[in-house]
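Feature request, filed as a ticket because there's no other form

It would be nice if the structure record came with a short human-readable summary line next to the tokens. Right now we just get the raw output. Example of a typical job, pasted below so the devs can see what we mean:
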Amino acid sequence: MNSFTDGPATAVWLACCAGLFSLQALQASRFLRMHDGPSLTWPLLTPVFLIYLLTAGWLLALPPALPFSSVLRSVALLVLAVPLTLTDLRCQWLPMRYTVMFWLGGLTSAALPDAVLPLKDAVSASLLAFALSGAVRWLANLRQDEERMGLGDVYLMAGLCAWLPWRSACYAAAGGLLLCCLCAALTRQTSKPFAPALFGYLCGLSLFFPQLLAGVL
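Raw output as currently delivered:
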């Protein structure tokens, strides 16, 4: 136990994290309603919230072994990923307003003190990821009647490379893709949203390999 988990600090931390989740979920719900999309349901919200809150609670126990700035960055990453995770999970939408905000959040994190990834490297890596992902999207959708890869996935990969060093971002993307393929195989569906799988992978990384956070997030 450390000073961050003593007394009412844990309750305040969890309440703040839950409040941030609620605000992001509300924004996602309003977006879906404004664009005539399906409503968010409790069976969908509940598991995402529980995974998120479990991860946020576990991160609180990591200092002083892990710098508290890394914990805050980790929670910020997950919070900004909440609305795009919910919309993608509900109807496979990745609205630009959320993917761009996720990208800008990563660049802002890189500009703060004690950042693992310098701002210059974050900008160049994210722009390169945007270009490469855009090329992959063009090839994936070439001569296809239906879109196989959306523009939101391109922005998502660019944002991921703003948060993480390129090697860690590749590992995270690969892990999310494997989890996505596993879910597709278990449900026998050919198409599965990528953002929720990536969100789950990052939460799993925080829960089971927290020592990597100091050099990843």
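Something like this underneath would help us a lot:
The CA atoms of residues 131 and 154 lie 8 Å apart.
The two ends are 22 Å apart (CA to CA).
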